[in-house]
Structure formats: C-alpha cells, structure tokens
Design brief:
By secondary structure, the protein is of the alpha/beta class. It has twelve helices and eight strands. It binds 2-phosphoglycolic acid (PGA).
C-alpha cells in the first residue's frame, strides 16, 4: 500500500509574511486526521518561517531547487546541505519550469539528485512531455528518456527515498488537466520503466504524483486512481481552503 502524497509547490509566490500566513492557514485548517503525506515547497526566503510554523505538525517542508555543488563560489545558489540544516526533507528536481525557462537538462538534473541524496534530502523528480510531443505520439518516449537520464547511477536503496511526479507540461498552470485515463496510462507506463530499470518491487514501492492544474474539482477522481499516488499542486496550493480540500480528497 503506497501512502498518497499531496504537495504544494508555491513557486515564486508569497513573501515570508504571506507564506507564514498560508502555512498557518493550512496547519490550522486541517482539523481531522490526514490520510496522506503532505509537503509544501515555499520560496527560499520563506523557508525558516514556514518550517517554524509547521514544526509540530505532520506537514513536511521542501525546497524548490538546489545547486549540485555542496559549497563554494556559486553566487546566488543554495546547496542541498543548506536546505537540510534548515529542516527541509525534500527538494524538487526537473520541474518543467526549470527545464523550459531555465534550460536545465538531464545532466544538471541528475547532478542535483545526487547532491540531494549526498545531503540527506529526498528528491522529487518531475517528468513530463510538451503538447507537441504528445500530439506527435512521443509522450512515452520523452518521459522514459527523462527518467533514464535522471536516474542513471541511482541505487535501489536511493530509489526508495525518491518520489516521482508526472506533470504534462501542457497541463501546468493552464487549467487543462490530463484526462484521468491519460494520467493513469502514463503512471503505469512510468512504473513499468522503473520496473525495467530497477526491479518490480522497487516499481511497486515508488510513489508517482500527478501534477498539472490539480484542484478540488478534479482531485477526488485523480487521487482515486490506483497508480496515481498523489498530487503536486501549484496554483491551488496558494489558498489554504483549496489545498486542504485536495488533502482531504486523498482516499
Ligand atoms: P499547477 O502547477 O497546479 O498550477 O498547474 C503544478 C506544478 O507546476 O507543479
């Protein structure tokens, strides 16, 4: 049984004061017990405040990005060790905005995953195809290549600490969601790739979140699908009410 995960990627939204309000809103708004794991990814400047507020809750915190070196003359960058010492347990890698706005390719993503493991963080590896790739029938090929390149050299033990997220690029921030059937098919394809790359037990254990315009209106259906182990939520995670509804929709 894989415990579902609901994660909120706040992207470049909320200063540290607004982020603290959002974190408090989520923590206070969860009244009953929660059946899923919950992770939030605030911007760097808000991490100390958010971690402080969420300290005695079940909600975990992660960083949105890291540089792959551990320290040194890399002006403007943040290391995995810095996030770990703040209290982060997770970090995103390969998010489509990093791939497509900042030009990050597989080599950098793979180095970031290694840096995360080296420093005690669990990476959340995001993969997903562009609309033109899907229209050309290349979605599976693109996703398999992203997985293979990012996971090269990763051990089975490390795989148990890694989380995957399938986020079709055309569904991110657009209001478009993959149909539950398309999402289900891609999730089982990804599990299959993990099985072929590692082994079937590892594939059965790995959690694969879906991301791309997840909101309370579609989260119940998406999270009820067996191979969809959670939701990586952008826009709808910025409002405590809608984020909590998504958390509560996890079976
Ligand atoms: P969205 O973003 O929910 O706003 O589409 C998802 C993501 O980028 O992780």
């Amino acid at each position: 049984m894989r415990t579902k995960i609901v994660a909120g990627n706040w992207k470049m939204n909320k200063d540290h004061i607004e982020a603290a309000e959002l974190a408090r809103g989520i923590a206070d708004g969860i009244t009953g017990g929660i059946s899923c794991d919950v992770i939030v990814f605030p911007p760097f400047t808000a991490l100390p405040a958010v971690i402080d507020i969420l300290r005695d809750t079940e909600i975990e915190t992660g960083g949105q990005n890291i540089y792959f070196e551990d320290q040194g003359a890399y002006t403007g960058e943040i290391s995995a060790g810095m996030l770990n010492s703040l209290g982060c347990r997770f970090v995103l890698a390969g998010h489509s905005e990093r791939r497509h706005i900042f030009g990050e390719g597989s080599e950098i993503i793979s180095k970031k995953i290694r840096a995360a493991f080296r420093n005690g963080l669990s990476p959340v590896l995001c993969v997903g195809e562009l609309l033109e790739e899907r229209n050309k029938g290349m979605a599976e090929e693109v996703v398999e290549k992203q997985l293979r390149e990012a996971l090269e050299g990763i051990s089975v033990v490390e795989m148990d600490k890694l989380i995957l997220a399938y986020e079709p690029v055309w569904a991110i921030g657009t209001g478009e969601t993959a149909t539950p059937f398309d999402a289900r098919d891609m999730h089982s394809f990804i599990r299959n790739v993990i099985g072929r790359t590692f082994d079937t037990d590892t594939a059965e254990r790995v959690r694969i979140m879906y991301g791309g315009s997840v909101k309370p209106e579609n989260s119940v259906e998406l999270l009820s699908i067996e191979d969809i182990d959670g939701a990586l939520v952008g826009g709808a995670s910025l409002d405590p009410g809608s984020f909590i509804k998504i958390i509560e929709s996890a079976p």
